[in-house]
Each structure stands twice: as structure tokens, then as C-alpha cells.
């Protein structure tokens, strides 16, 4: 189903009109309107103005999205929006391997000339109301600053590490892979990379479907990275591609033996593929540091390098989620322990507010029933804002820690621990590829 043309939210449109501004959909096929929108988007993130060639390249390789802009008819450049956003719906893998449609939001910018007068709030609220009106139960985004989105009910649900390894200290102690690592061109890699990403997505909670255009950009098929990126593929003993890595090398001035490898992506459908690719990168000659971005927080590499302190990791929040429909998202995932719990959810914007009885059996299947205001329940209960429920939803944030932090209130002693046991995921959630 396509949501690209879902109508503009009338509440936000009306609020912006009162400030002399217009909220509009941008037609994907209107090149001039999209170029003007891209100019605003680039400026919003402090990037240089895109050249005509860059605009043509981005237009040619951009997935179809629901693009919105806020326009100021009184501005000297009225065709260029003063605020931008884009959204699309993609499946998010949840614990147990099922998926939930995710209203994914990106490119939220407001021009410095129009900031702090409620334009971003109007756009974000419009996105959430539109998603809910279209029946999409969950919204998600990655953030530029961790202070912006909590006020709209988003909570950080997945994390990733920037990992830096001193290669001169590494003594490989991981598995000896039975397959081969090979150099491949990005054109050759793309179909295999798509299969590998999909294979990982099937078992990895927190993964969001990544379309072909974005994956092509990620592996250097087009975009600025093309010349600098090296791409390798891991083929298992039967010759089946099971993983890939994309990296670039930077020399250290004055010492040719100390290049830094920056790993853009390293993704294996099997642990053996991950191990083989890590080993390949860590054993490159003339290299002293391997720095890898967006790594899963529970990957085994620390136990493959023979010296735990050769690796330094810095953790960052990645996917922020915002639940819009509590029963729909809770019933889509599986539970690690049988449970009967009442969740009292506070949501100032109304979408997710209510009291919900969650019952999960030993088979992991959950059933959710909304309780009436007066309906008594003898079950253990927790009270929590929608931000916290969204944060713990994938099992990557501890309800016990949230209770200790005062963000979740136990109605019954031990209820946070029961929630933690039920919400545990088979793997720590990981977004896999950032959007
Ligand atoms: C999913 C994504 O795309 S993430 C990318 C976000 N975009 C950027 O970082 C680009 C640079 N920044 C911007 O373009 C703008 O400053 C934005 C989009 C972050 C905010 O736009 P504005 O129109 O100024 O925000 P608006 O006036 O609607 O403020 C809404 C609320 O957010 C708060 N807020 C706005 N910007 C920030 C910020 N950078 N940090 C913390 N709080 C903020 C405001 O104080 C206000 O709070 P309140 O409603 O609780 O009083």
C-alpha cells in the first residue's frame, strides 16, 4: 500500500496558516519543486548547496516518499520551503520475527529564519495524526539531537556502538571461517547485499526494510562515496554470499604503516560471515586502527580479538519509536515469558492512552484488551508514559532500569521485573542500516 499521497493534516495546516505559512505535499514527479525542497533540506542540515549534477543524481536515485514542505509566500524565495519533512512506511522486525508497519520520518528541518515558532511541532504532530489516520500503529525516526523528540512521545528503542579497535594488539581468537572474502564491485554486490540484508532483517529485532536505492547508495553504487569505498563479500564454503563489508582507508601523515580503516557497513547473515569479515579488516596490512560505525551492541567481536581492551566502544541511541496503537504493536511481537500485566499508559496526545491488559502464554503469543476506566483488575500493574513504553517495546531498554530511574511506576512490587522478563528479545534490537 502506498501512503505517498496521504492528505495533509488539516489541524496543523490551519495552525500554520494563522502564522502566514502553508503546509503542502510536494509532488515526487515535479523536478523543480523537489529541487527547491532538497535545497531547503540540505541547508537545514548545514550541507553545501547541492550542485545541479547532485540534484539530478539524488532525484534519479531517491525512493518515492511522502514529501511535505512549509512555505512562506512572503519570503524572497517563496518556492523554497522554510521547513521540510518526508515519511514512508516500512516493516520493522519485532521480537519473535514478526513485523509492524513503521511510519518512518526523516529530513525534519526548519529554516533558521523560522525556527522556534512551532513549525516543527506542527509538522511532527501532522505526521503522527496522518500515520494514525492511515492505520499505521507505530512511528519511528533517528535523531540529530536527543532532546527534540521525547516531547512527541518518541523513546530511544535501539542503540548502536561506534567501535574502534587497535589492530596491532589483536591476536585473532575467533572462528576460522571455511569460506572466502573477495573484492567485488558495488554493481555486482547489490543483489547479494539485498538478499543478505533481508536475511538479517528476518531474525534481527529493530531492523527496518531498506530499499534498493538506499542500499545502492550505502554500498557506493552512487553518491559521494563511490570512489573511496572498497567493497568485499564473504562467500561460504558452498560459494553462497553470506556477508559484505564496505570500508575506506585514510593514511596517517608521516607513518605509512598506520592507516585507519573506517567501516561503513559490515553485515553477515551468519556469525561465521561476521567473523570472516572482521578478521579480514583487522588483519589488513599497513593499518593501525579499525573504526566501525553503527555496530550492534551485542556483537561477539570483543571475544574474537584476544585482548578485550584493544576495542573501545561508544554507544549512541539509534531508532526512536512512538507507539500510536498499543494493542496492535503489543500483539505483533512475541513474549519471552508468560505474563498477565496491566499497563497504564499516559499519552498527552491521546493516541496510546489507556489501561491495557497484556496476557501472554508460554507459546509467546500476546493478547491485549483495553480495560474500561472503571474496570477493576487484580493483575500486577505498571504505569508509564508512551515514551517509555515505546523505548522498552523491542526489548532493548530495561523496564527495571526505567523503574529505578523513576520513569516507570510499579503499581505492584516486582511488576517491572515481570515486564522485563516478558519483553526480553532473542537478540538486542539493532536498526542494522540507518535511515
Ligand atoms: C528525524 C529527523 O529528521 S532529525 C533532524 C532534526 N533536524 C535538525 O536537527 C536540523 C536543524 N534543526 C532544525 O531544523 C530545527 O531547529 C528543529 C527542526 C530541530 C526545530 O524546529 P523549530 O520549528 O524551531 O521547533 P519548534 O518551534 O516547533 O519547537 C517545538 C519544541 O521543540 C523544542 N526544540 C526545538 N528545537 C530544539 C532543539 N534543537 N533541542 C531541543 N529542543 C528543541 C522547542 O523548544 C519546542 O519545545 P516546546 O514545544 O516543548 O516548548
From TrEMBL:
The active site is at 149 (proton donor), 435 (proton acceptor). It comes from the Bacteria. Keywords: Acyltransferase, Transferase. PROSITE patterns: GNAT. Acetyl-CoA binds at residues 108-110, 116-121, 144-145. GO terms for biological process: aminoglycoside antibiotic catabolic process. GO terms for molecular function: aminoglycoside N-acetyltransferase activity. Residues 21-171 form the N-acetyltransferase domain. SUPFAM superfamilies: Acyl-CoA N-acyltransferases (Nat) (SSF55729), SCP-like (SSF55718). Homohexamer; trimer of dimers. NCBIfam families: PRK01346.1-4. Belongs to the acetyltransferase Eis family. HAMAP family: Eis. This is GNAT family N-acetyltransferase.
Amino acid at each position: 500500500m502506498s501512503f505517498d499521497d496521504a492528505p495533509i493534516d488539516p489541524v496543523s495546516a490551519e495552525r500554520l496558516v494563522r502564522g502566514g505559512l502553508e503546509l503542502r505535499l510536494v509532488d515526487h514527479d515535479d523536478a523543480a519543486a523537489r529541487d527547491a525542497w532538497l535545497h531547503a533540506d540540505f541547508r537545514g542540515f548545514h550541507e553545501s548547496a547541492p550542485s545541479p549534477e547532485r540534484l539530478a543524481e539524488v532525484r534519479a536515485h531517491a525512493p518515492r516518499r511522502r514529501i511535505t514542505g512549509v512555505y512562506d509566500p512572503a519570503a524572497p524565495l517563496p518556492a523554497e520551503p522554510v521547513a521540510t519533512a518526508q515519511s514512508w512506511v516500512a516493516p520493522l522486525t519485532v521480537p519473535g520475527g514478526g513485523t509492524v508497519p513503521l511510519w518512518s520520518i526523516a529530513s525534519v528541518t526548519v529554516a533558521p529564519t523560522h525556527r522556534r515558532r512551532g513549525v516543527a511541532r506542527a509538522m511532527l504532530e501532522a505526521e503522527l495524526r496522518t500515520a494514525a489516520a492511515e492505520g499505521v500503529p507505530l512511528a519511528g525516526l533517528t535523531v540529530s539531537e536527543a532532546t527534540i523528540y521525547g516531547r512527541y512521545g518518541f523513546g530511544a528503542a535501539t542503540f548502536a556502538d561506534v567501535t574502534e579497535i587497535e589492530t596491532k594488539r589483536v591476536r585473532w581468537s575467533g572462528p576460522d571461517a571455511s569460506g572466502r572474502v573477495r573484492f567485488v564491485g558495488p554493481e555486482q554486490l547489490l543483489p547479494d547485499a539485498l538478499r543478505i540484508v533481508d536475511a538479517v532483517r528476518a531474525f534481527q529485532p529493530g531492523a527496518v526494510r531498506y530499499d534498493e536505492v538506499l542500499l545502492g547508495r550505502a554500498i557506493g553504487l552512487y553518491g559521494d562515496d563511490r570512489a573511496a569505498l572498497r567493497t568485499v563479500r564473504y562467500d561460504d564454503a558452498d560459494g553462497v554470499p553470506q556477508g559484505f563489508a564496505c570500508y575506506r582507508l585514510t593514511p596517517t601523515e608521516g607513518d605509512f604503516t598506520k592507516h585507519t580503516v573506517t567501516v561503513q557497513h559490515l553485515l553477515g547473515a551468519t556469525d561465521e560471515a561476521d567473523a570472516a569479515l572482521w578478521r579480514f579488516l583487522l588483519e589488513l596490512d599497513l593499518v593501525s586502527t579499525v573504526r566501525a560505525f553503527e555496530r550492534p551492541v551485542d556483537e561477539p567481536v570483543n571475544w574474537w580479538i584476544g585482548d578485550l581492551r584493544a576495542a573501545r566502544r561508544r554507544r549512541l541511541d539509534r531508532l526512536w519509536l512512538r507507539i500510536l496503537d498499543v494493542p496492535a504493536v503489543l500483539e505483533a511481537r512475541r513474549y519471552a515469558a508468560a505474563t498477565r500485566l496491566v499497563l497504564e499508559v499516559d499519552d498527552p496526545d491521546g493516541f496510546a492512552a489507556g489501561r491495557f491488559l497484556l496476557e501472554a502464554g508460554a507459546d509467546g503469543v500476546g493478547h491485549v484488551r483495553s480495560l474500561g476506566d472503571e474496570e477493576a483488575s487484580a493483575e500486577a500493574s505498571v504505569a508509564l508514559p508512551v515514551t517509555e513504553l515505546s523505548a522498552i517495546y523491542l526489548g532493548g531498554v530495561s523496564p527495571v532500569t526505567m523503574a529505578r530511574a523513576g520513569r516507570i511506576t510499579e503499581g505492584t512490587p516486582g511488576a517491572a521485573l515481570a515486564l522485563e522478563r516478558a519483553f526480553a528479545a532473542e537478540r538486542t534490537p539493532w536498526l542494522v542500516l540507518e535511515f
